[in-house]
Amino acid sequence: MGRLRKFDRDTVLESAVDVFWERGYDGAGMQEICRATGLNPGSIYAAFGDKHGLFIEALKRYMAAVSQETIERLNSHPSSRAGIADYYAALIDAMLDGKRRWGCLVTNSIVDFAMNDPQISAAFQLHLARLETALSGAIERAKREGELVRDVHASEAAAFLVCTTQGLNVLAKTRPTRHTLEAITRHAFVAVGFKA
User: Fold this and answer.
1) Is 69 part of a structural domain of the chain?
2) Cα separation of 190 and 110, whole Å?
3) pTM of full prediction above 0.70
4) Burial code of 70-94, b = ≥16 C-beta within 10 A, e = fewer?
5) pLDDT tens-digit readout, 151-174
């Protein structure tokens, strides 16, 4: 039996994220995964069990990175409104010129896996809950800072913004214009109750 080839796990997972993100789970063939990661099938199976195992690890890595970036953006401004606006501005930029033009790996995968894969469904629920919690915290701060027109229920407003984000992720795959994406986020801000 051959020795397991040494490799950098983080680099492999980053490459796998891109393949699954662009192609989807079913569209990502093992040959393409091997080409992107630089590993042979035996190394992938030995390290991750199978394609499904690699996908779960890649998905967890993607969700951790997205959660961290979201929290950093929301908290990197003195104004909570500015933090949320920056989060959506970065999202729109990535949808137009970055990898988000492929949509969101989580959003893309929810349709395929949420109903029939409990392990992946639980990971999705945790990811969306983290996003909702981060947005809810920013909305609570915005309430204290007087940036909202009326007293709003922070967790309900955050759930609405999470829904808006997921809708934008789906729309991204249709190649929308910047004007369309910015109009949606502008209306979402009004709906939540932010002052103009």
Assistant:
1) yes
2) 28
3) yes
4) bbebbeeeeebbbbbbbbbeebbee
5) 899 999 999 999 999 999 999 989
- Residues 163 and 171: their CA atoms lie apart, in Å, by 12
Distance between CA atoms of residues 85 and 106, nearest Å: 22
CATH of the domain at 147: 1.10.357.10
In a domain, 145, yes or no: yes
Count of structural domains, the chain: 1
150 sits in which H/E element: none
145-155: pLDDT as tens digits: 999 977 899 99
Q: Coil, helix or strand for 98?
A: coil
**How far is 161 from 172, CA to CA, in rounded Å?**
16
Q: Which residues pair with 148 in a beta bridge?
A: 194
Using alpha carbons, select from 167, 141, 163 the residue that is nearest to residue 154.
141
The DSSP call for residue 176 is -
- Residue 29 in any domain: the answer is no
Q: Residue 70: which domain range? A: 59-192
Integer Cα distance of 41 and 21 in angstroms = 20
